[in-house]
Design brief:
alpha/beta, five-stranded parallel β-sheet, 18% strand, binds flavin-adenine dinucleotide
Length: 454
């Protein structure tokens, strides 16, 4: 089959795998590539040793594929990888994945098809591209005076407790990775400090013996979720100030919350010292905003990640406040046959939302053939909002998916009205790959590589 009849899925992490299953079920031919050495994304090659999911196995499993009964409530990365491998093999997805293939450039052509460069290969010519490249890949660095003199790494570069052994460690940030690393440093390092710029919402992982992410609250209106969880925090943790921490200024869920109380327990034991924001570095010395200072052998910036698409033309997809500016969580309005999937972070595990979301996306990708404009342009025209945050309310998302599945007829109707309003003139000229006409790039898969699952 020709490349130009297929979509290319970039990324074989949890989201790319779920997307592959959905497009396969909807009879859409596709190819699937991943830069890593195998499928599984972060759970194979992106995370540190000893990491466990903080969302429960029930909220993290794909909605149609439970994790094994014998798994604990919070499985390890290797258990998650084994689960993803079974998912791929049970659905016949694994043989279609080309690993060790990094996509370096993706450009639209005049006819809304796509020119794709994969390092070291002849360019390919696809009908469309589905980007599932993950949102924990491109480190976000802090910016402090003198930090170039500090022994600074990003949490993305941290892989094992042996890197902390015997060291005086300062961790910047209070998210899930920050807490894991500070906790490991307290166990194997000489000392462990955490610099917290603001107050964080620390949630217990369990309540009354059940994972908090399994409590039947996540589909309630957000105000009610907040009320209940504030009660849980009060009962299990108490006032954060009792641990020497600041009270959060933002509302619960306005920023990513942190699951787990291990760090709080270690603070109470004096094994982790909370510190305020850093003012500047001077070599191994960190000067904090309260006038105090500390000497460190290693500083780990657990300061998050950018949502980014380095293979797309600059300016094609905007990201504001970490929120990718696309409609319906997948659809750009300025180009056709390009889909960005998985750029949002659900409050609990990925699986519950990803499964129904990709099924809807696959239906819409099929529908794109009947629609002149990009689906995102129709959504924009009918007044759908752009996202203001990358944090996703799972209950609201499920309701939107349910409704969207029943309103596809309206989208079709709106697309016809849009055509009357203005014609689609193709992708913006500045993004088009001018030196590659549709006929110039390789569009037939060499026989030995034709792994499309139609
Ligand atoms: C420390 C940590 C803990 C976490 N804990 C949880 C948790 O408890 N629960 C939860 O639900 N989520 C958790 N996550 C979030 C995690 O990112 C998701 O679980 C999940 O891995 C996201 O899936 P994904 O497919 O979108 O991205 P990824 O798993 O990142 O997969 C993306 C894939 O795309 C590939 N790729 C990227 N660029 C290219 C390219 N140019 N060419 C080819 N391939 C490319 C990568 O190689 C990668 O394999 C955690 C993340 C971190 C960092």
């Amino acid at each position: 089959m020709a490349f130009r009849d297929k979509h290319l899925i970039i990324g074989a992490g949890p989201v790319g795998l779920a997307m592959a299953k959905a497009v396969k079920q909807h009879g859409l031919p596709y190819d699937h590539v991943d830069a890593g050495p195998g499928l599984g994304g972060n759970w194979r090659h992106g995370l540190y040793e000893n990491v466990h999911i903080v969302s429960s196995k029930r909220s993290t499993a794909f909605a149609d594929y439970p994790m094994p009964e014998q798994y604990p409530d919070f499985p390890s990365a290797s258990q998650l990888l084994a689960y993803l491998e079974s998912y791929a093999s049970d659905h016949g997805l694994d043989s279609a994945i080309e690993t060790g293939r990094t996509v370096t450039a993706v450009r639209p052509l005049v006819d809304d098809t796509w020119h794709v460069e994969i390092d070291g290969e002849e360019p390919r010519h696809y009908k469309g591209v589905i980007v599932c490249n993950g949102h924990h890949r491109d480190p976000k660095w802090p910016s402090y005076r003198g930090q170039e003199t500090a022994p600074l790494i990003h949490a993305h570069d941290y892989s094992a407790p042996s890197e902390l052994a015997g060291k005086r460690v300062l961790v910047i940030g209070g998210g899930n990775s920050a807490c894991d690393i500070a906790w490991e440093a307290a166990r194997v390092g000489a000392s462990s400090d955490m610099s917290l710029r603001a107050g964080y919402w620390f949630l217990p992982k369990t309540f009354l013996g059940r994972p908090v992410t399994d409590l039947p609250i996540w589909t309630l209106p957000v105000a009610l979720q907040r009320l209940i969880l504030r009660g849980v925090i009060r009962l299990v943790i108490g006032d954060y100030r009792a641990y020497g921490l600041q009270r959060p200024r933002s509302k619960l869920f306005e920023r990513h919350s942190t699951f787990g109380t291990e760090v709080l327990g270690y603070i109470a034991q004096g094994r982790i010292a909370p510190r305020p924001d850093i003012e500047r570095f001077d070599g191994n010395t960190a000067h904090f905003r309260d006038g105090s200072s500390g000497e460190y052998d290693l500083v780990v910036a657990a300061t998050g990640y950018h949502n980014s698409f380095p293979f797309l033309p600059a300016g094609m997809i905007e990201v504001k406040n970490d929120a990718v500016q696309i409609y319906g969580s997948a659809f750009p309005s300025n180009v056709k046959n390009l889909y960005i999937v998985g750029s949002n972070q659900p409050r609990n595990g990925f699986g519950n939302i990803v499964t129904p979301a990709v099924a809807l996306f696959a239906r819409l990708i099929r529908m794109q053939d009947e629609i002149e404009h990009p689906i995102g342009a129709v959504l924009e025209w009918q007044g759908d909002p752009l996202p203001e945050t990358n944090l996703m309310d799972p209950g609201a998302a499920k309701r939107e998916i349910w409704l969207s599945n029943r309103m596809l007829w309206l989208l079709r109707l709106q697309s016809r009205r849009l055509v009357h309003d203005r014609r689609w003139l193709g992708p913006p000229a500045e993004f088009i790959r001018e030196d590659a006409r549709p006929s110039d790039v390789q569009d037939v898969v060499p026989e030995s590589r034709d792994v499309a699952a139609a």
